[in-house]
Amino acid sequence: MSTLSRVTRRALLLAVIAVPAFGQVTLPDLVITGQAPGSLTAPSVSEQREALERSPAATHFVDGEAFANRYAFTLRDMLADTPGVFVQSRYGQELRLSIRGSGIARGFHLRGVEVLQDGVPVNLADGSGDFYQIDPSAVRAAAVYPGGNALTFGSSTLGGAINFITPTAHTVTEANSLRIEGGTYGTGRLSGQVSAAFGEWDALAAGSVTHSDGWRQHSRSQYEQFNANLGYRLNDRVETRFYAGAYIVRQQLPGSLTLADALNRPQAAAAALSGNQARNVWAERFANRTTIRLDAGQVDVDSWITHKQLYHPIFQAIDQDGLTWGIAPRWTQRYEIAGLQGELVLGGRYFAGTNDALQYVNLRGSRGALTANGVQRAQNYEVFAENRLWLLPGLALVTGAKALRNERDYENRLTGQRFGRAYEGLNPKLGILWQPRPQVQVFANITRSQDVPDFSDQLQTVNNRPFWVPLQAQRAWTVEAGTRGRYEGHGWDLTLFRSTIRGQLLQFTVDPSIPASTFNAGATVNQGVEFAGHLDLARGALAAGDRITLRQSWTWNDFRFRSDRQYGNNRIAGLPPHVLRTTLTYAAPEGRGFVSPVLDWVPEGAWADYANTLRANRYFKLGLEAGVRVAPNLFVFLDVRNLTNKRFVSDLGTIQNARAEGANTAVFYPGEGRSLYMGVRMSF
């Protein structure tokens, strides 16, 4: 059976699943009169938040105003208060991002979470990705969709998706702005944006330049990031928006250390110095979204192309040049059937890419003799559907599914060998949402996820050469239940989840200078609790209109093997079981200023090995954030981190057994010491 016929049959199956069988369905006409406000391609922040919170799932929305007056340089700075999202810094913008155990043991880059910018994938076609094109100073909001809850974008990985939304001239809080920031370790950043709306056109451009000498030896970085969009409204029903971005990254790598060195002598690793290890990226991104409002629903068509060039001297000098492109149409329709209200989404995605992957002997950061020359090709065919039906005014049933075919091929140009594998799947979703009052929700759902190995998993290093490993896809069923709400200045967000996984993609490090090897585990379980809450302790304490607010987030991770022949019921290495963050904020009236002490607490360190014999240290660290508006268009802020200069491990790689003979335990990344950043934000 051909690929096309398989996908077609599954698309028809999705349509059957998506629309409940109540007999003949009549879709009412969508009547549009006059000029609709705002933008068709870029809804307002409040509209986007409302759409996200209609999902029967543990979704989270982060308004950019929450970190507008902080030194936000990485994804951690944006998502630190979001439960269930584990983000830890290593150096520069190099991070570990994990949701519900996605990429739990991945010691480099990204896997298991789809990162989107304005709804368009940032990940490469094989699913791998980096974070360098996400510039916090150019983000208006972030929407987090754990697991199968990201079906609205066509994503169905264990970790789900995070959509970083850049501002347009219609959604900015300040039409034009300029930020100047600086701090310890030779850190300085200049960023700004300009925007305008003129007639049927609107445009915005944002850019930043950041330099840091780095906290550790050999961790100097330079980031230059630019994002822009241009929208044009053809008429009341049709609008198109073009996006463009350019990103240059020059990042030295300090390497990983043993636990003792990470806590007591956090210098650069010897291999990082001798190999002048670095990660240098040049990338350009172009995308378009065209929105058409029809008499029956709305059509959105996304298309994109991304070019990325990587020069990455590590154990060898990796030299890659790749191109990723895709198109994703989606149709949304609100309808009425048998007196019941509903909303149906049908969509598809095709995206593909090629990557010329060369490797050389690393001569202190320069190219030596050629050791590998290959081309990586990935293609993805996906169709999905999601239907929300309100059975009662406060009770909704959500059904959906995604069918996929992912193809991975590798050609070794030195030997003439070719390798490849195709992955297929059907991932259903069933959920229920109960809304007893307008701002209170109770939800539960069950989803199936599927994670396909990327080329870093499939091309493992053996004798300093890439070796193809035919890994299986990771499959999981996830059950979650929770509640969220807001009431008289208070709020909560609580979710319990359990994922039963087969073939979980895990890594182990043999030599810290060489990318970790990947294997399919047997039966594993990822389960936990995600909680966030805020409580207004006082109002009018010092002045009329001021507020004192306590915020708490807690993530509990219980990830284990199940009767594994080698590891029994041990915990899976990589993430700490508990992560807590507490903030106490005094906010002056009318946004005139704030002061906020912050406590980050990890009661137990993460295991570094699957045998559970070596773990990172536990720690708590204090911080202080403050800001004051000194003029109507001028805000000054301060961000002090790790006030007590606590020595801790911020991230780690994973190994099999730290006590095994010859085990190399230099897999720990020391956390940043005491640091201070100040900034000025101006609008005009």
UniProtKB/TrEMBL annotation:
Presence of the UniProt keyword Transferase in the record: no
Membrane topology: Multi-pass membrane protein
InterPro entries: Beta-barrel_TonB, Beta-barrel_TonB_sf, Plug_dom, Plug_dom_sf, TonB-dep_rcpt-like
Residue ranges of every copy of the TonB-dependent receptor-like beta-barrel domain listed in the record: 181-643
All residue ranges annotated as the TonB-dependent receptor plug domain in the record: 53-161
Keywords, ordered alphabetically: Cell outer membrane, Membrane, TonB box, Transmembrane, Transmembrane beta strand, Transport
Cellular localization per UniProt: Cell outer membrane
Coiled coil: none
A GO CC term assigned to this protein in UniProt: cell outer membrane
Name of a matching Pfam family: TonB_dep_Rec_b-barrel
One record GO biological process: siderophore transmembrane transport
UniProt-recorded Gene Ontology molecular function terms: siderophore uptake transmembrane transporter activity
Major localization listed first in the record, in broad terms: membrane
Keyword Cytoplasm assigned: no
Similarity comment: family membership: Belongs to the TonB-dependent receptor family.
PANTHER family named among the record's database cross-references: TONB-DEPENDENT OUTER MEMBRANE RECEPTOR, TONB-DEPENDENT RECEPTOR YNCD-RELATED
Name assigned to this protein: Iron complex outermembrane recepter protein
Organism of provenance: Belnapia rosea
